[in-house]
Design goal:
- The protein has 401 residues and is of the alpha/beta class.
- It has two domains: 129 residues, Aspartate Aminotransferase, domain 1; 233 residues, 3-Layer(aba) Sandwich (Aspartate Aminotransferase, domain 2).
- Helix content is 45%, strand content 16%.
- It contains 17 helices and 14 strands.
- The strands form three sheets. Strands 4-10-9-8-7-5-6 form a seven-stranded mixed beta sheet, with helices on both faces.
- Helix 9 runs parallel beside helix 10.
- It binds 4'-deoxy-4'-aminopyridoxal-5'-phosphate.
- The site of 4'-deoxy-4'-aminopyridoxal-5'-phosphate has 14 residues, from helix 7.
Length: 401
């Protein structure tokens, strides 16, 4: 007993404790209080922090469906009928009929044969890579991919070559050095989340055909926004059949939580046997599944949300461009304001907060060096009054840097 107590007092702390205590990134984050804020209330496009109201100008609720009555009602009814969770992975404990129904509807909507739904977009997008890539393959990845795809790439164990952002010519250069016999996978995004750029998909597809590459595309930010009724980037370019695997998140246009991978029936079956994120993760909850399904229906029945989104986008872009702010040639509702230096970004962000506008700071290494930015996103739910306030706040913030 005495020996145990002594060993407790003499035990040295693990170096991990020192690492935790001395971490610069966490220290700076806590000092400047830029992330992980907590809001006590949300209504429409408004959120409240410490009693102060803000217009949310950075969430990805592109179509403004978060408070749609049908989306909320579907979630409530599913909880009543099925409970809160299925508390298990589908491979082991089985899926439920509502998973299959949503999968069929999603596959049909995006123009693929089959689909698998996940409890997070992150898992879906990681699985879209791990489900297919083998150690012996070469992956070709856009430098500015989302973290979920990088996770999938790393976990796959395959060699990865990065090409300049949205630059098919650079990809072509890299391809020329590779053995034609090694299987190749391109990993792309439909709309790049930070920059709002639409992928130069026709050119990438040309290359994929030439080099016999398999194409995985994450359309988290194109789904619901581009293409007929929001079918996404593949539909926008008429290239749905040429993209082998499409993945996306429910947490943007579908205003929910979860994600999906869509492809041919045999490819989805293959992924279900090979992706550990698919095999070992609990099934999408009944309420999340039902809300996503209702939102998918709203997308198809109520085109006014997409129309309003693009009307708001036009006004918002002109506010920023009239102020000569650099929006990095964004073509979509995900709009960065590139300021290029950490300090400028911080003061701009603070000035917007002062005026009741909530945005996100994104600095290197999260963005390329010299591209430090404020990431904003416009929604169909923003009202004309919201945009008046945004305009005034942008003028004020610009005057502060
Ligand atoms: N892919 C992209 C491009 C994203 O922007 C995100 C979310 N930011 C994800 C995947 C992950 O989706 P989720 O947040 O639903 O997990």
């Amino acid at each position: 007993m005495i020996k145990m107590a002594l060993s407790f007092f003499t035990q040295t702390k693990s170096p991990i404790h020192d690492r935790i205590r001395s971490d610069d990134a966490s220290r700076l984050r806590l000092k400047y209080d830029t992330y992980y804020h907590i809001f006590e209330k949300q209504e429409g496009t408004r959120v409240w922090k410490d009693g102060k109201e803000f217009i949310m100008l950075s969430s990805n609720d592109y179509l403004g469906l978060t408070h749609h009555p049908k989306v909320k009602e579907a979630g409530k009814q599913a909880i009543e009928k099925w409970g809160a969770s299925t508390t298990g992975a589908r491979l082991a404990n089985g899926g439920r009929i509502f998973h299959r129904e949503l999968e069929e509807e999603l596959a049909n909507f995006v123009g693929k044969e089959a689909c698998h739904v996940f409890s997070a977009g992150y898992l879906a997008c990681a699985s879209a890579v791990t489900g297919f890539a083998d150690r012996k393959d070469i992956l070709f990845a856009d430098k500015n991919l989302h973290s979920s795809l990088w996770s999938g790439i790393k976990l796959s164990g395959a060699r990865c070559e990065r090409f300049s952002h949205n630059h098919p010519d650079h990809l072509r250069e890299l391809l020329q050095y590779e053995d034609t016999k090694i299987p190749k996978i391109f990993v792309l995004e439909g709309v790049y989340s930070m920059e709002g750029h639409i992928a130069r998909l026709p050119e990438f597809i040309e290359l994929a055909k030439e080099y016999n590459a398999f194409v995985v595309l994450d359309d988290a930010h194109g789904f619901g926004v581009l293409g007929h009724e929001g079918r996404g980037v593949c539909d926008h370019f008429g290239l749905t059949d040429e993209v082998d695997v499409m993945c996306s998140s429910f947490s943007k246009s579908l205003a929910g939580a979860g994600g999906f991978v869509a492809s041919s029936k045999e490819a989805i079956d293959y992924m279900r046997s090979h992706s550990k994120q698919t095999i070992f993760s609990a099934a999408l909850s009944p309420s999340a599944c039902a809300s996503a399904r209702a939102a998918l229906q709203v997308l198809q029945d109520e085109h006014q949300h997409k129309e309003r989104l693009f009307k708001n986008l036009e006004r918002y872009r002109s506010i920023l461009l009239n102020l000569e702010l650099d929006i990095w040639e964004s073509e979509t509702p995900a709009i960065p304001i590139v300021l290029g230096e950490k300090e400028k970004v911080y003061y701009f962000w603070k000035a917007l907060l002062e005026k009741g506008i909530y945005t996100i700071i994104s600095i290197a290494p999260g963005v390329p060096p010299g591209k430090d930015l404020i990431r904003t996103a416009i929604s169909a739910a923003h009202t004309d009054e919201d945009l008046d306030r945004v305009e005034e706040a942008m003028h004020y913030a610009k005057s502060k840097i």
